[in-house]
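Internal tracking record. Fields below are filled automatically when a chain is submitted to the structure queue. Please do not edit lines marked as system-generated. If the sequence contains nonstandard residues, flag them in the REMARKS field before resubmitting.
Queue: standard
Priority: normal
Entity type: single polypeptide chain
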Amino acid sequence: MEDTTAGTCDVESAVSTGPVTGARPQPTAAARDDGGISPEQFQAITTARHRGRKISRAAMVASISGWSMALFAGISLLGGLFSLQSFLLGLGLGAVAFVELRGARGLRALDLAAPRALALNQVGLVVVVIAYAGWSIVTALFGPGPYDAQLAAGGDIAELLAPIDQLTRSITVALYVAVIGISVVAQGCAAAYYYSRRRHMTAYLQGTPKWVVETLHATSP
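SYSTEM-GENERATED OUTPUT FOLLOWS
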């Protein structure tokens, strides 16, 4: 009787301390034995790409805008060899281009600070345009003109060229005033567009699994 009891205790001890082979962890719905992605994973990635199109499009817009400004900055800096005004314009556009391209990278990395930085960068671009156009307006009104020598000489030629000189200055002023107005509207719309991407980015991050975000970021160009 004692041997039977001892045997029973030994069996119970072995069951309680030994490995439980029937309780293996079940694989998740997205897992596959061959290491590939499952249909559920593929669908999650496809959905995330579709939901992230607005952010990707904004990043593309920022990249195109940044490289375009960088090109104009380079041209202005070359012109700065002969004009201080062009040189300063090139510096301003170069700074704006740098921030624009950095913001594009931030959008691709889903950095929530990027939309605000890009929006403020548009304000900076307006300041650069207003400064350049304002300088040009002052120069057109009070600076030397192409007919100064003839006007100073007097006579019939001076009387003939005086209204032409005035018309030239007026057209120049009107042109740069229009540039300021267009820039304020265009950059204001661009700033609102960039800033609104923060809302889309927040919704994307909240509604997309972290592993999907990391996968897309790792495979992005």
